[in-house]
Amino acid sequence: MADSVGKVHALAELKGKSVLLNFWATWCENCLEEMPALQDIQTNSSGTVVVNGVSADMNANPFTTVCGFARANNINYQLVVDSMASLGTSYLFAANRSRATPETFVIGKDGNIKYLLQGARTKAQFHSFIRNAN
After folding, report:
1. What confidence score (pLDDT) does residue 102 get?
2. How far is it, in rounded angstroms, from Cα 62 to Cα 7?
3. 3-class state of residue 18 by DSSP
4. What CA–CA distance (Å, rounded) separates 120 from 7?
5. What's the rounded Cα separation, in Å, for the pair 123 and 51?
6. Is 81 helix (H, G, I), strand (E, B) or coil?
7. 59, 61, 102, 112: which has the highest count of C-beta atoms within 10 A?
8. What is the CATH number of domain 16-133?
9. pLDDT digit string (tens) for 29-63?
10. Cβ(73)–Cβ(57) below 8 Å
11. pLDDT band for position 19 (50/70/90)?
């Protein structure tokens, strides 16, 4: 994944931390419902949980759309744009699932996918899955 300044990162860099890899879109109401919970987890996890949001927006300029959305909604966890759907497709293929929005992969500290959550979740639900993943 490339971050907002173009630096490429691999999820392997986060081994030892729990990761919520959240696939979302600016037009998805359920995605917007769960974003405050994801922001709270990122802010208050003391670095033990990392939230990465992967936008599925495919408009004329998805990067501008996502950056503007993040600023307007005070989202400061890592967001990337997957406008070609390559990242989403590879994760869903590995999980043998069809695509829905939002979707969150809960990745344990060992770097393995533990859960695929389809649909919006609450902060308490996310915390439960994170606990059970480790």
Report:
1. 92
2. 18
3. strand
4. 29
5. 12
6. strand
7. 102
8. 3.40.30.10
9. 999 999 999 999 999 998 899 999 988 887 777 77
10. no
11. very high
**Residues whose CB falls within 8 Å of the CB of residue 103, separated by 6 or more in sequence, listed in order:** 22, 23, 88, 92, 116, 117, 118
**Phi/psi zone of residue 16: left (φ > 0), alpha (ψ -120 to 50 degrees), beta?**
left
What is d(CA 123, CA 97) in angstroms, rounded to the nearest whole number?
Answer: 24
Q: What token pair was written down for 6? A: 């173009």
> For residue 121, what is the DSSP state?
-
Mean pLDDT (the chain, rounded): 83
Instruction: Compute the C-alpha angle 56/77/69, nearest 5°.
Output: 55
Tell me if residue 112 falls in helix, strand or coil: coil
CA 133 to chain centre: 16
The tokens describing 48, both together, are: 């033990």
User: Per DSSP, what are the bridge partners of residue 51?
Assistant: 20
Structure tokens at 5: 């300044």
Q: Could you state, in order of their start, the residue ranges of all structural domains in the chain?
A: 16-133
